[in-house]
Write a structure and sequence with these properties.
about 100 residues, SH3 type barrels, two-stranded antiparallel sheet, about 20% helix
Length: about 100
């Protein structure tokens, strides 16, 4: 189950909010499950969504230190790195399942 599917309809957001599931950071396209590093935070975070309100803007992510996964929200300017290679356990398992299904065909 992807975060996009599980959180999209979980709670109604005010009509003045704009929620998107794609973001451009330093020329890189960020979609749900893309791994990010956040300035001043330990570990890697997986992107969930980008939210804009009339007064503020933030990204919702899940992750952190290994063994201490949590839901967090940060200002977009706090993104330090958009990672090319996945290292979180959830993403590695997902990649291995995809490779196995391709090899089985």
């Amino acid at each position: 189950m992807s975060y996009k599917k599980s959180f999209k309809g979980a709670k109604a957001v005010p009509t003045s909010w704009t929620v998107s599931y794609e973001l451009q950071v330093n020329g890189r396209k960020v979609v749900p499950e893309t791994e990010l590093s956040i300035t001043g935070e330990a570990g890697r975070f997986r992107f969930i969504r980008h939210v804009k309100t009339p007064t503020s803007e933030w990204i919702d992510v899940v992750g952190g230190r290994k063994g201490w996964t949590m839901w967090r929200s940060f200002d977009q300017s706090k993104i330090r790195t958009v990672h090319w290679k996945n290292k979180t356990a959830k993403n590695i398992i997902k990649e291995r399942k995809e490779e196995k299904s391709k090899n089985d065909e």
